[in-house]
């Protein structure tokens, strides 16, 4: 699935993504400022959470309560090694039946379950992004 969108259509894009995915582990790729956290905010909202969503850049993971499950939101930008991921128990999060959204996932690719999705975001211009769901 490939979608072009802007902030006005973000909620409908989030709905489309949730309907399209078959697995609850989703990796988010894109340059700094591409809109990864902004899209995750919309996804969390569409999953029924009223929690305040922010980037877990320093805490590594934020947990949000959704209608029927927890949502774990990771930002692994500051992770220096896979051992650091083991130290905070990332495998427990990945093995849960909850939603897991991971920004900057490259360092933990070997730990991922067999079934996950990748969302790539591209900054088209100041108002437009392109989402590719794999």
How would you describe the overall organization of this protein?
There is one protein chain. The chain has 134 residues and is of the alpha/beta class. It has one domain (2-133): P-loop containing nucleotide triphosphate hydrolases (Rossmann fold, 3-Layer(aba) Sandwich). The chain contains 4 helices and 7 strands, in the order βαβαββααβββ. It has a 7-stranded mixed β-sheet with strand order 1-7-6-2-5-4-3, covered by helices on one side. The termini are close together. The model has no long low-confidence stretch (mean pLDDT 94). It comes from Bizionia echini. Its main location: cytoplasm. Pfam families: TsaE. GO terms for molecular function: ATP binding; metal ion binding. Keywords: ATP-binding, Cytoplasm, Magnesium, Metal-binding, Nucleotide-binding, tRNA processing.
Features:
25% helix; seven-stranded mixed beta sheet; single chain; ATP binding; Rossmann fold; nucleotide-binding; 30% strand; metal-binding; alpha/beta; 134 residues; 7 strands; tRNA processing
What is the strand and helix layout of this fold?
Blueprint: E1 2-5, H1 10-20, E2 25-29, H2 36-46, E3 61-65, E4 70-75, H3 82-87, H4 90-94, E5 99-103, E6 117-125, E7 128-133
Parallel strand pairs: 2-5, 2-6, 4-5
Antiparallel strand pairs: 1-7, 3-4, 6-7
């Amino acid at each position: 699935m490939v979608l072009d969108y802007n902030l006005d259509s973000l909620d409908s894009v989030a709905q489309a993504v949730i309907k399209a995915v078959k697995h609850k582990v989703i990796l988010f790729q894109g340059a700094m400022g591409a809109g990864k956290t902004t899209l995750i905010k919309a996804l969390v909202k569409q999953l029924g959470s009223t929690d305040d969503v922010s980037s877990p850049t320093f805490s590594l993971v934020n947990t949000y309560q959704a209608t029927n499950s927890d949502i774990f939101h990771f930002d692994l930008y500051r992770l220096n090694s896979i051992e650091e991921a083991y130290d905070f128990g990332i495998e427990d999060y990945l093995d849960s039946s909850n939603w897991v959204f991971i920004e900057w996932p490259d360092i933990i690719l070997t730990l991922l379950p067999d079934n996950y999705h990748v969302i790539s975001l591209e900054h088209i211009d100041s108002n437009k992004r392109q989402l590719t769901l794999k």
